[in-house]
Amino acid sequence: MERESIALFGIPVDDLTMDSAIDAVFQMTDTYRHDEEPRYVATVNVDFIINTLSWRTSRSRHPELLNILRKADLVTPDGMPVIWASKLMDSPLSERVTGSDMVPAIAERAAKVNKSIFLFGGSRWITENAAEKLVTDYPGLKIAGTYTPPVATVGEDILDSSERDQEIVKMINTSGADILLIALGNPKQEIWFERNRSHLKVPVSIGIGGTFGFITGAVSRAPAWMQKSGLEWIHRIMQDPGRLWKRYFNGLVKLSTNILLPILIHKLIKTSAMLKRPVKYSESKTKKNIEKREDIAILAMPSRFTRKSASVIKERLSGCKESIILFDFSDTVFMDLYAMGFIVNTLSHPDKERSLFLTGINRVLISMLKFNRVWDICKDRYCNERELISERAKKHDNDTVFYYKAVSDTNSFRIELNGRLDAAGIAKLDISKIIESIGNRDCIMNLKNLKFIDSTGLIFFLKIKKHLSSFNRTPIICNLNDDIIQIFNITKLLSLFKIMPDFDSDKPLTEEAI
Prior knowledge:
single chain, 514 residues, alpha/beta, six-stranded parallel sheet, six-stranded mixed sheet, 46% helix
């Protein structure tokens, strides 16, 4: 499916209408028959943005959620503030596409094309009543099942989540559902899907938050005029002021504050770019903008990298067969949010057969990428020395693969973690073997070369913590980067471990295969 997305605070948001979003969902169900890849649709509103935003542009409040949203196969703009922000940044999205509007439309289409739906999450009464209401409203709709179990994504309960998830996933897979509606709320629904992605046999999963409550009428929606004018949040606060006023107030303040500087930077750079003579980037001249060197294709980016030129780049990229693609920004003086959306989507969904890198980005554009929270995904792929690009490609590929090195002596077991410890990495990891090697000694874990960890990867640390607790010992963790510290913080696990800045050892660590 061809995507046109803006990068809003580093999150890709697709430009869709309700009809095109529904078409995309059912296109993905058909695609599953060919590649058996489960896909995820996120409905992003202000809560999502606030949950991922920190006050510092150099980091994320919730790195795992940001990573999941960037990997999502479709991200709809659920919330008028998202639409307003896109317009203020001169990259307007077509319309608001909410989860509460999508679900009835999906149910209607599913009834016509013989697709089934599984309702997962929410409270039992509301979820079951939502299923009955959908069947009543859309005769012929197949409900594959409903289930409302407790799901843990924070605290020590994460340790037992894998066994519970296996039972849930087995139930959902056995149902034969075509579409899974996950109503666990943000970010729990996104985290649950990502940690079970590789085991799910459902073509499309959609995070829909509290939509079941709207369907049953347990939660009333604002009048249409309030929805269109972006005042639905006032209606929600009036229904539950004690719980919601602070959440909405903090959300709007944080969103407004965080968008002011990106708007100013955007306007200044755009004005400056308009005063310069642009290098026209037309399809007829595109071939001249591709330079090929052995296994490397160098694509010259346009001077003003906008939505229109991004479509040309996509076409040229699809025609490149080289194993390394280098995007050259040497002539680029401006990017809009669609260009940044292209960058985020391209780097978040790379072809497994090739490596992607960037070069030639000037200081002004780097500032623009930083303020729009896109630079974090660019910096690891940035290389200004072309002759070293092949070496960088090999190093980058190695950095994404999880492996560990270990050494032990009479008193301690030291382990160094490398790469990305996520659901894919932990599935290959023999934790029982490591715990057996630790025995009753101190365990020191060096995370200096660990690039990323998600809540599934935290199971590794929790199992070691549980093992050492029986010997009255506390695992020691050192050299955590900012994102990993934040993952431990946001899952309320940091206090369970002894955190140290570094450790010294003269003994070489030996690499262990997983």
